[in-house]
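task queued by scheduler; priority normal; single chain, no ligands, no partner chains; default sampling; output format set to structure tokens
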Amino acid sequence: MGISIWQLLIVLAIIILLFGTKKLKNIGGDLGGAVKGFKKAVSDGEEEKNAKANLEKQESAEEGNVIEGEASKEADSSKDKDKA
């Protein structure tokens, strides 16, 4: 029921006869370039996504430090008031 290896070889031979090896080589090179470009675009998108996530983490950490700093200043000022 499935396609045998001999049937695949016959189809491949017909394709080579119709298009020629030079044209098939060019098509293969174009296809390889397209795949390489696609992979590069995907990896660039992932790097950009990771960079945004890291920036958001840094901003939230800085906001947390500012809030903690304000809380410690308030605690220090209340200690100074208690001493007086």
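post-processing summary
- Residues 21-83 form the longest helix (63 residues).
- Helices lie at 5-19, 21-83.
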